[in-house]
Amino acid sequence: MTQNEIEIRSLHKSFGDNEVLRGIDLDVAHGEVVCVIGPSGSGKSTLLRCVNLLEEPSAGKVFVGGTEVTDLDVDIDAVRRRIGMVFQQFNLFPHVTVAENLTLPQRRVLKRDKARAAAVARENLERVGLADKAGAYPAQLSGGQQQRVAIARALAMDPEVMLFDEPTSALDPELVGEVLAVMRVLAAEGMTMMVVTHEMSFAREVADRVVFMDGGVIVEQGPAEQVVGSPRHERTRNFLNRILDPAAAAEPGAGPQDAGPQDAGPQDAGPGPGTGPGPGPGDAEDVRKEG
Ligand SMILES: Nc1ncnc2c1ncn2[C@@H]1O[C@H](COP(=O)(O)OP(=O)(O)OP(=O)(O)O)[C@@H](O)[C@H]1O
Ligand SMILES: [Mg+2]
């Protein structure tokens, strides 16, 4: 039986006069990894936040695991328990240890006893390769380690789906790979994931589907190879040109006609120096391959 883990129907969201989501329809199948890409302000974060009800949709419906979470009678806490979310900023509790960051939510929200919460915490710290940091405080960890703790904390709640909102955007380039490596393992284990990311090599490698959003709508979607490799819409091409080769995109006259994605971008945008100035996704890819 195939079941959609997430179903989004005619989702609209306005902030005052600003209509940020203008009718989003999207299904995410059980075990599927969907990467959401698009320019700043296109509504990617708002979309994720509507799925776990951090934002209340203005219209439309969202189902998670077959339950309509937008139903007014729904228990919002019960819904959120089923959805893990990882943000750009790690949002760890700074004043308690890494282990306690994992055990406290389990105890408070899931009412697990101390021993069980500790065992689940250990298990998930091992999963992200940080068992040895259980007693450390967040400030003693690198950004990449902190983000892996944030992922472990979400996993300790046994979520049915995981939402990632630019989980590597706040990290120094050399730390991106270790976080993506954890996410890649999760994907391989069959976790249902929605990932907002600018890491195109990750999207190409891991995503079952890439969704390109602009102006609050889904402009196109499909396999990564198609959307990133040979986008159908000019808006998608422009966006990819900008993120894959920011320097070229900033040059006057350097538009899609001069540097179409076939020439400039995605095909060459795997690991390697072609992806842009300085350390970038290429380095991250290298780290991942080692891990
Ligand atoms: N709480 C809010 N109140 C008012 N406006 C908001 C709120 N949250 C988001 N917006 C507006 O909604 C629009 C979409 O924001 P959103 O954060 O979803 O975009 P995004 O695609 O995630 O962008 P970025 O890539 O910069 O993270 C923006 O114009 C933003 O200013
Ligand atoms: Mg955002």
Task: List the main descriptive attributes of the protein structure presented here.
291 residues; alpha/beta; 6-stranded mixed β-sheet; 4-stranded antiparallel β-sheet; 38% helix; disordered C terminus; binds magnesium ion
Topology:
Layout: E1 4-15, E2 18-29, E3 33-37, H1 44-51, E4 59-64, E5 67-68, H2 76-81, E6 83-86, H3 98-109, H4 114-127, H5 143-155, E7 161-165, H6 173-188, E8 192-196, H7 200-206, E9 209-214, E10 217-222, H8 224-227, H9 234-244, H10 246-250, H11 261-264, H12 281-290
Parallel strand pairs: 3-8, 3-9, 6-7, 7-8
Antiparallel strand pairs: 1-2, 1-4, 4-5, 9-10
Helix pairs in contact: 3-4, 3-5, 4-5, 5-6, 6-12
The structure holds adenosine-5'-triphosphate and magnesium ion.
Adenosine-5'-triphosphate binds at residues 15, 18, 20, 38, 40-46.
Mean pLDDT figure: 87
**Termini gap:** 34 Å
Order of helices and strands: EEEHEEHEHHHEHEHEEHHHHH
Low-confidence stretches: 253-291
Tell me how many strands there are.
Answer: 10
The backbone outline, from C-alpha atoms, is globular
Structural class by SSE content: alpha/beta
Gyration radius, in Å? 19 Å
Which ligands does the model contain, each kind named once? adenosine-5'-triphosphate, magnesium ion
Instruction: Determine the strand fraction and express it as a percent band.
Output: 15-25%
Biggest sheet details: 6 strands, mixed
Measured as a percent range, the helix fraction is 25-40%
Helical region count? Answer: 12
Strand order of the largest sheet: 6-7-8-3-9-10
